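ok so I'm stuck.
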Amino acid sequence: MIHIYKAGGDYKRDGIDYSLKVINYNQRDEFLVDGWVETFEELLPVEEKEPPKNKNELNREELEALLVENKVEFDGRWGDSRLRELASEYIK
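replied:
not stuck anymore, here's the structure
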């Protein structure tokens, strides 16, 4: 006997409503093709990581923060392109 899980239902855990069934292991394949999964963790939403920004995507505030963080001196009157040039070696 195994437990299988499906999104939506009467049970709630970690903010997710789900259904739960206990089935014979030999029934497993027929349920898994119908939206059931073997572990509760498979119901959890996948967190999407934000891709790292490249130097052309940083706004002025982010550029200035990066330069301050890396102790790079700059003049606040300089244009964004000059700040990008200075920050380019610190952007991963």
